[in-house]
Amino acid sequence: MPRLLIFETAYRPIAEALAPMAGRLDLLLMNDAGEITLNGQPVSLGDAQPDLLWTSGGMYFGPAAGKFVEAALASRRLEWAHSQASGLDHPLFPQLAARGVRLSNSHGQAVCIAEYVVAEVLAHFQRIAERRAAQAARRWDHFRFREIRDSHWLIVGFGAIGAGVAERIRGFGPTITGVRRTPGPHPLADEMVPLSQAAEAARRADVVVLAAPAGADTDRLVDAAFLAGMKSGSVLVNVGRGTLVDETALLQALDRGTPEFAILDVFDKEPLPADSPFWAHPRIALTGHASSYGEGLQRRNDALFVENLRRYLAGEPLLNLVDPRDVPRGPAS
Q1: Residues with catalytic annotation?
Q2: Are strands 284-286 and 191-193 parallel, antiparallel or unpaired?
Q3: CA-CA distance, 214 to 312, in Å (whole number)?
Q4: Number of neighbouring beta carbons within 10 Å of residue 233
Q5: Domains of the chain, earliest start first
Q6: Which CB contacts under 8 angstroms, 24+ apart, belong to 300-303?
Q7: Kind plus residue range of the DSSP H or E element containing 295
Q8: Residue in 59, 98, 97, 101 with CA at minimum distance from that of residue 77
Q9: pLDDT for residue 331
């Protein structure tokens, strides 16, 4: 029977959903100490030999992350790995892709990240911080604010997250230009252009949203030349990866006033060092890679994994399979 390697903490919420698969699946459960049991019996990392992986949050943030990766790479049987993340820039995935392991990812983050983008842009356009400051000071002030209607949005990366942003802002009435590797008509965009035209399209945009994955073709996509061409009063939002932006060039551009403002959830080095100039910059609103922390995230990602596991055991096509060519390699990993 195929063996599934999964953290105990990730198994508990889906144990009931996996119960109907008993007898067709062996469970390799890893605890926070990196110890593995096979159907309740201790087994070494080298002898675990999983066929399947559920790379939940424990592989990214847990105390046994290194042990999980070690067990995965030691397996001679590994066929499929499903990631809780959308981006596959963890160093494990290029190694698995090179071995021919099938990879699939999750898009449960799209809902929360799209809502985050809309909330943060609206907060800037509507001058929410100034309104609250006036309230605290008991001032009866009036603030003229910007409207999304008639603005132009450029969304770089039109996968689940980028399309999610477009879906949510469309009702406000902006023009939407999407950027993806394979341009073509899309019902949520007024136009779609290739990545090679992103900088040119940014010249017309009031809001530029970066939702693309890390990769050789997106590394430092937003450089000094890209920033210099942005519109006066424009806003840059990065919910993709920190490597998409030349951070030194961005700070210099913000100091000059174009773009007018940046909303940043991801950075080249994470966690962001306490002495980073980003923290206190008056033209930046930042969060610590937390735009996906919506209350429904785990529920959506768990449901997708369970469905994909059911499909795997039934010999049916898997959902959200990732083209190995789209897995970041080299420094971006």
Answers
A1: 241, 270, 289
A2: unpaired
A3: 28
A4: 13
A5: 3-108+296-332 (3.40.50.720), 109-286 (3.40.50.720)
A6: 300/106, 300/108, 300/111, 301/84, 301/106, 301/108, 301/109, 302/13, 302/14, 302/17
A7: none
A8: 101
A9: 37
The answer to whether 41 and 11 are in contact (CB under 8 A) is no
pTM: 0.93
DSSP string spanning 112-165?
HHHHHHHHHHHHHHTTHHHHHHHHHTT---------STT-EEEEE--SHHHHHH
pLDDT for residue 148 is more than 70: yes
Which of 60-64, 125-129, 181-185 shows the lowest per-residue confidence on average (mean pLDDT)?
181-185
- Please report which helix (H) or strand (E) contains residue 216, including its range: none
Give the angle 81-86-90 at the CA atoms, nearest 5°. Answer: 65
- The span from the CA of 231 to the CA of 259, in Å, is 7
